């Protein structure tokens, strides 16, 4: 496992173009910060950044992060793994301190860490619902508040916020997750507008069901969406990276399932949207009707 060496980087308006043009030492490679990078979309995003010539600060609250960092370092990238709980202020502060300890500006920031909890809201523990909000919403805002102003002050950078197609429609049986993703999608689009002309772009990623550990961790393996077709996280990450490079406002993953969810959200009446979404997230054996 390798680690970045502090040093000054040349300001650039396109960090990706800079990375692709960098032949290697002694030039300083651009730096990407990726959260939720121990597995799934986050790990694949980190891998793509490394392949494109970025050094990395990667964060997650799992022991697997060390293994992921070793694998990422094999590509030639300098990788600094930071095991922290981004649902807490202390965890965010620790990650920010590690980023600043590199002595380098952040060229790309992927706010990808997130979690979910499945089940009927009246039955799920309050602590679980608050944990979703703490990581998906509060952790995202805290980290953006800490790092984005420095990118704006430098006048360059790319920010990616991982939302979900679940952000587009209220989500019965994982209500706090869908609502949290609606928040971060709206947050990303508002921040993008505020930062217009600063040299910093913000892109919202809207993946559909993806073959990660999300459904297992959320307790949703017995739902239709948990058992149904799911996208390859590497494909999702590639589309996210290319959209980030292009400075797009949002990236809706180009799979049939994700596109279908986005189209349904755009054309169906509100009550129908909730009914359709709820049919895919209802746990097996739950015979409760959806109010359509």
Key terms:
globular, disordered N terminus, seven-stranded parallel sheet, alpha/beta, 11 helices, 292 residues, 12% strand, disordered C terminus
Task: Set down the secondary structure blueprint.
Elements (H helix, E strand, L loop, with lengths): L14 H7 L9 E5 L4 H12 L3 E6 L3 H10 L5 E5 L5 H13 L6 E4 L14 H29 L2 E6 L12 H20 L5 E7 L7 H5 L5 H4 L5 H14 L3 E3 L3 H12 L2 H12 L11
Parallel strand pairs: 1-2, 1-4, 2-3, 4-5, 5-6, 6-7
Helix pairs in contact: 2-9, 4-5, 5-6
Short structural summary:
This protein has 292 residues and is an alpha/beta fold.
- Note the total helix count: 11
Q: Which oligomeric form is depicted? A: single chain
Strand order of the largest sheet: 3-2-1-4-5-6-7
End-to-end distance, in Å?
Answer: 53 Å
Q: What's the main sheet like?
A: 7 strands, parallel
Strands, total number: 7
Helix content: 40-55%
* Uncertain residue ranges: 1-12, 22-26, 288-292
Q: What is the gyration radius calculated from CA atoms?
A: 19 Å
What is the mean predicted local confidence, pLDDT?
87
Q: Report the β-strand fraction as a percent range.
A: 5-15%
Give the H and E element order.
HEHEHEHEHEHEHHHEHH
Tell me, briefly, the overall form. Answer: globular
Class per helix and strand makeup: alpha/beta
Description:
The chain is built from 11 helices and 7 strands. β4, α5 (126-154) and β5 form a beta-alpha-beta unit. With 292 residues, it is of the alpha/beta class.
């Amino acid at each position: 496992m390798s680690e970045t060496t502090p040093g000054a980087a040349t300001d650039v308006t396109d960090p990706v173009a800079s990375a692709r043009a960098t032949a290697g030492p002694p030039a300083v490679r651009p730096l990407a910060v990726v959260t939720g990078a121990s597995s799934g979309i986050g790990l694949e995003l980190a891998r793509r950044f490394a392949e494109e010539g970025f050094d990395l600060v990667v964060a997650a609250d799992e022991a697997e992060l060390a293994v992921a960092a070793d694998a990422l370092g094999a590509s030639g990238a300098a990788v600094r793994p930071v095991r922290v709980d981004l649902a807490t202020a202390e965890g965010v502060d620790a990650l920010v301190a590690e980023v600043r300890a590199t002595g380098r500006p952040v060229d790309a920031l992927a706010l990808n860490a997130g979690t979910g909890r499945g089940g009927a809201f009246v039955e799920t523990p309050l602590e679980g619902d608050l944990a979703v909000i703490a990581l998906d919403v509060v952790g995202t805002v805290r980290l953006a508040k800490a790092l984005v102003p420095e990118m704006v002050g430098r006048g360059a950078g790319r920010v990616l916020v991982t939302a979900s197609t679940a952000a587009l429609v209220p989500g019965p049986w994982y209500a706090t997750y869908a609502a949290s993703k609606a928040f971060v999608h709206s947050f990303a689009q508002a921040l993008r507008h505020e930062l217009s002309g600063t040299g910093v772009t913000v892109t919202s990623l809207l993946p559909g069901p993806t073959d990660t550990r999300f459904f297992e961790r959320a307790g949703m393996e017995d739902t239709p969406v948990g058992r149904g077709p799911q996208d390859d996280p590497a494909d999702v990450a590639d589309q996210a990276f290319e959209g980030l490079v292009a400075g797009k406002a949002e990236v809706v993953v180009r799979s049939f399932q994700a596109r279908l969810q986005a189209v349904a959200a755009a054309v169906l009446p509100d009550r129908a949207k909730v009914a359709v979404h709820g049919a895919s997230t209802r746990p097996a054996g739950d015979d409760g009707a959806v109010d359509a």
